[in-house]
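Internal ticket - ligand job 349, NAX:
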Amino acid sequence: AKEPVRVLVTGAADFNGVVESGSGEARRSGQIGYALVPMIARGVMLGPDQPVILHMLDIPPAAEALNGVKMELVDAAFPLLKGVVATTDVVEACTGVGVAVMVGGFPRKEGMERKDVMSKNVSIYKAQASALEKHAAANCKVLVVANPANTNALILKEFAPSIPEKNVTCLTRLDHNRALGQISERLNVQVSDVKNVIIWGNHSSTQYPDVNHATVKTSSGEKPVRELVADDAWLNGEFITTVQQRGAAIIKARKLSSALSAASSACDHIRDWVLGTPVGTWVSMGVYSDGSYGVPAGLIYSFPVTCKNGEWTIVQGNGLGIDEFSRKKLDSTAEELSEEKALAYSCLT
Ligand code: NAX
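stdout (structure tokens):
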């Protein structure tokens, strides 16, 4: 039998947090974490033959709620779950973990300046980076979900210099999956028959969902999405904005942000990274830019990647020509990330 892998989930308590500013109303927190931990315990993230030990971290006001989640995990009697650590101590949380999913962060509250939110997240990610660097397992894979996801991941990478830069990533798979979902609805085909969309750039409304290389499996072979949809105005307009604004649409409908879809996508991200992407298929991941596609090096930027033997590689090649429309979009989301990076650095002093 395989040795268990320790998986850290930060922000894992599901509780009615009290908003510190504004109306003072109770607010439901930690929904992604609560959706995510049972998926991990069922083998959705690391496979049905991989035992896991869950490490859950949250802040002291959430300690009791976190313990409640631990009780439920015990009660669910998951065969793959070999232990649960529920803690508010960052060192205990990070010790020995082979996978770290960083969902905890400081949400933007009404009336708060961007810089104030950034500053809170920079200090959280700086501290957690150091703890991971010192106490996580060698070769720990890190996925940052909490917003601003790309920039939180960049801070984590900068403050954990001994963790290889290839091991620090952020989640744009939810956006990728949303794009697959929109195409499948539009064409009335199975979502599993649609592949190779790309999310470029920031996990924000400047992201660029690109279908130029996407295909659909049909009874007469793989066909380009552009040919099947045959409506460039929709693909270059409403499709893009729908994917970019989907998070806001979910909040409007649920009065809560995306949780089950975010958790499921986080599992997809780690599973494909660890176990590999199918031949001929790529996925989108926020990774450390090496300058590919003219994206400035030194940003965490979402690219099309393939994964093999636990490593991702940015899809290269002449096949992925970037037209003028796409070029502008790749550049403007890179510009936003450069600004976020500068803002984050200004919070460090
Ligand atoms: P919540 O704000 O409800 O939950 C965050 C949790 O983190 C809370 O339980 C809180 O107590 C905890 N926390 C705060 N500071 C912490 C610290 N220093 N250490 C450990 N835990 C801490 O957010 P939720 O709706 O669960 O979303 C989590 C994060 O994911 C948010 O930042 C959100 O913006 C982001 N999202 C990112 C997505 C992506 O695709 N990358 C999509 C979904 C989501 O919007």
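Auto-summary: The pocket of NAX is lined by residues 10-11, 13, 29-33, 57-59, 62, 103-107, 124, 145-147, 149, 171, 174, 203, 247, 257-258, 262 (CB under 6 Å). The mean pLDDT is 94.
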